[in-house]
Structure formats: structure tokens, C-alpha cells
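Next comes this protein:
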Amino acid sequence: MTRHFVPPFPDRGPGPVPVWRGFVGERARTLVYGWSERAFREPHLIRNVLGYRVHIPLEPESVQRVLLDNAANYEKPKLVKRLLAPVIGSGLLSSDGGLWREQRRIVAASFTPPAVDALVPVFVDVAERAASGWTQGTRDVAREATAATMRIISDALFSGDERLTSDEAMAHIAAALAGVSEARLQVLLNLPMIPVSVRGYRGRRGQIYLRRTLTELVRERLAGGAPDDFVTRMIHALRERFPADEAIELAVDNAATFYLAGHETTANAVTWALYLLSEQPELQDKAARQAIEALSSGVDAALPERLPLLRMIVEESLRLYPSAPRFDREAVAPDCLGGHDVRPGDLVSVWPWLLHRHRQLWDDPDTFDHTRFAPEARKGRHRFQYIPFGGGPRMCVGARFAMAEGLTILAVWLARHRFSPLPGHRVQLSGAVTLRPAGGMPLALSRRE
């Protein structure tokens, strides 16, 4: 049913690349570029990056200590907070301590199982509308997935505000994410975050557009007559706990966080899953048959649960191409990880990209094999060797939303269309924040009978 298939990944040399390579050329544009073969074999790496001591734990037990067992000792790094401040301020993703706990409690209510289950018809409706106009030929499924997930976030959390789904919005958001790589070096060197390239200027304009648009939306909701949706409920909850000006700022911060994280990561997951299925036509047909049967049983909360094969495929896709291939912490107090002393102020960089392909944790790790996620294959696997949504108390609050959304979009699209590789197109990775295909993902489409 499946053939042996090793999907593309960046070349690996025998040893680590110089640190400076992380700030110029392809390494600056593509977060996962430049890793050596050693990184996929060693249990722990330590690097010095412009004076910062960086630990890279590659044993699940060490990752568990950082994210769960001693999570209070590992905060969001000050560098990361400064880097993300122009986009998401002090929202849930970039805050710590009491501020993080208050915001987590507020937003978690919108992502409970019943709340997510109620949104399945929205997922189906958006996916069907997106695919209704497709004809046989070539289509960039990365762009289609981004447009669909932006629409879903707009409909599900922001009552369908058109300012969040326009072509202008898509262009600005893509530019804002691409501009982060330039700012990384400025933050590390403690320099002013001033754009110095065309990409940097476009990124800054994108950040300004996003913040201005969401500030307008928040203030309109405060003026009265607002729909009872995620952002309105969040605004009122924040106003009950924080001073008025701070509540407005936090509302914009979190609106930006969930708008960006809510569409970008799921769009990438859908894109990579479609690519992998395009290379496995028999498996794709089997997943399509399951999707057709699941949809014929009704559009209800149980729809994602009727897609076990597709879930395995998506989970393997997220193993090979985690939407967020890296996240960082900063040690507050001394600790020990895998026998290595961690000092206060040390950075700890957790890499799903490395963990998910590590040779000590997976058999034939670079090969696509969805059966890794069959129920019987999961037994005995450490829960922190596979962390596409993070782990511990800071695990992505929208994980259930993202998985249900991704499964539903894929089910609708596979039920209607067959996806095939585009002859001559070379798939490459890109992205300084999330992991996306460089230049999009053009696939050949044909109508499924």
C-alpha cells in the first residue's frame, strides 16, 4: 500500500556548522538548515552563540524536565520576548508567571472539547467552499491551505471579520513572519530592531498592519453591539482582571497570537500532509475512501474521530515536518540536564525537528511511515520524544482545535480531489519561525470520481 519514501530534508554534514552561518544565507532563511549528522545522534548539544550558552537536550527525559518536571525554572527567554514583542506583545505565547496563568485561564475556555466539537461544521463549510471552484490542473495547496485556515480562524474566533482574510492580509502576515530572521541577529547583539533590507521593511509593514487592524477590531468590540465570540469574551474577561489600557493591549496581543498561530501552523500541517499523500497514491486513495465514508455519516462532532487513518498520516507528517520546529527557554536557577550543568541565564533550545528524526529514538527516522502512529506502535514510546504541540503546562492550548481542523480540511479535500506530484518541481523547506515549503506547494489536481 505504501512504498519506501524519504521526503526531502536539508543536507547534513559530518560536523556542526559555524555559528555565524545561522545569520546569513540559507541558514538565516530556513530554521532547520545546516544541522550536522551528529545532531541526530548525540544525547545533548551545547553551543556558544554570540556569548550565550545554549543547551539542546535530545533525550526525552531532559525535555520532560524542561517542559514539565521543572517547568517553573525555564521561562520564555528575554531575547524571544523582545523579538516577538512587535507582533504579539505580552500575549499568552510570550508571557510568564501570573500574567501567563491569567491569560491561559481566559483563553482555555474557548478551546475545551465541547467548544472545539461545536466548530466542526465551520471547518467543513470553509473546506467545501474552498474546494468548490477547483478544476483539474495545478494548484498551490500551500496557498489554498493558508486561505482556508485564515478563513476558519476568522469565522470561528472573530465572527468572520473580512479584514483578516483579504489578499492584503495574507501578504502582510507572510511578510511579518519572514521578517523575523533579520531581527534575530539584532536582538542577539542587543541592537535596535531597525529594518535594514527589503525583507525587513516588508516584515515591519506587515507587523504594523496586523497590530493596527486588530486594535481597530478590539476597540470596535468595546464600543458595543459586538458578537459573542472568542475575541469579545476575551476582551471582557481581560477587563475584569486588568486595568483598562492594559486589558486592551493584552486583547490585541492575544488576538494577534491566535490569529497567527491559529492559521499558520495548521496550514503548514495540511500542506505537508497533502504533499506526502501525493507521493503515496494507494494510501491517499484509502484515506479518501475513509474520508468519504466519514463525511457521509454526517457533519458532527465525531467526524474527526471517524478518520483514524488520516490521523495517523497527519501525526507522521507532523513528526517529519513539525509546524514549530523549535522553541526556547531560559534557565532561572541552576539545574542539571542529562548530566550537564545548566547555569542561570543559559538558554535551552528544544527542537522537535531533531527529536522527531533522532536515530536513538526512531527506526529509519527520515522515512515516511504512518504506521508509527498505529495504536499498537505507540506503546513504550516516551511521551516527550514526539512534541508537535509542545508539552507540559505550556502545551499548545489550541492543539485539539488544530488537529480537528486539519483532519476535517483534509477529509473534505481528499473526498473531492486526487493530488499528485508536479513533474519537475523540487520541494524545499523554508521558514524562520514555522516550517513551510519554499515557494509554495504546487500539486496536480484531478477530480475524484
Summary: The radius of gyration is 21 Å. The domain at 19-447 is CATH 1.10.630.10 (Cytochrome p450). The chain has one domain: 19-447.
